[in-house]
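Section handout 9: paired folding examples.
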Amino acid sequence: RPGLDRGTALHAGLAAHYMGLGAAAIDDAIERAGESEVAREKARRLIPLYLRHYAREKIRVLGVEVHHRADVRDDVVGALAPLTTRYDLLALTEDGLRWVETKTASELRATQLRRYRFDPQLLQGCAIWAESGPPASIVAAAKKFRTKLPARLAVRINVVVDKLRTATAMQKSQFLRVSPESDTATLKGGAAF
């Protein structure tokens, strides 16, 4: 599906950016994502808009595409179950430590925003953090910034919405921050191709 393709390419490019790599490495990451040419081109157009939109945001990157695992007790069967997750971006923001998760959508409906509260990836990532604490690499990175990590992980979801407006392929992108604790999203700007 095209939305999933664009998400893979977009994630690859953003990961390269947040790892501190240059424009050539970002483009190479998009190319290596193995998706269709259409998906790669859309990612190449969306990433600069995304980065321009968040350019003023002051963040300190603690980790990119961080894998985390914990054995969590399953109360139903009374046994430990191994859970794994991958955090897109763990960063110190003006609001404190945040797991910044990027989602893509060709268009967005209110029901989709409510579903993010129950997204298995988000629930599992928060459960693993609560059960075993932060990954060791994040603890080490936080020490460099002299920052204490919280017991609970706060999540910020950046939703990149890309909707085809006309047959001539004029597209409008919107960037939203979704709070998993509520049914609302705050529109944080937009840009037109």
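Moving on to protein 2 of 2.
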Amino acid sequence: QTLSVQEIAELRQIYGNIDFDDDDNRVNEVFTTGVLDRFDRILNEEEAFKLLTNRYQDSKDEVRYVECFKKIFEWTGKSDVIVRNDLYNDNIRTYKKEMTQEQYRYLLLIKQSIKGEFIQTNDIKVLVFLFKLALQTYTTPDFFFPSINSVILGNYDMSLPVFCKSEDTIRKLETIVNQSGLYIRNIETKIQF
């Protein structure tokens, strides 16, 4: 379901400025942050060139990310996830050459149901599909988990920024992520006043 203007306003009230790329954002005052990643540290330039350009490794790692995402979804009690997506105004024909026919057909089906920037669903098939699109850099959606007051942002070389309203939540996420063979690195707790 597409979120109404009122629901988007409520989301902004809970999470503040949703555009985390904004320099004026005071995100560290509101969130405990980290980066969901396949590496436990930031890679140097040589490591990044070797490790981030390997499509075979990316496909293997994608499996771990998807399993991790499913575990997080399970932990939330399969509660609705709000996805800020860029598909609603995206020309998806450009994806046709790169996707399998089945993937592209499913994308068309989802695109038909998307009427705005934000959608809300607890359909794990849809969520996993959108998550995979992010991992494969087709789109850069943000995944809001209202039941745990957390957000996972789209993909940056399979490094996904994580924002949680509580440190306990990010620590629990870290446990789930580690069980999947991944990491939450660079955890910074929110500024205390």
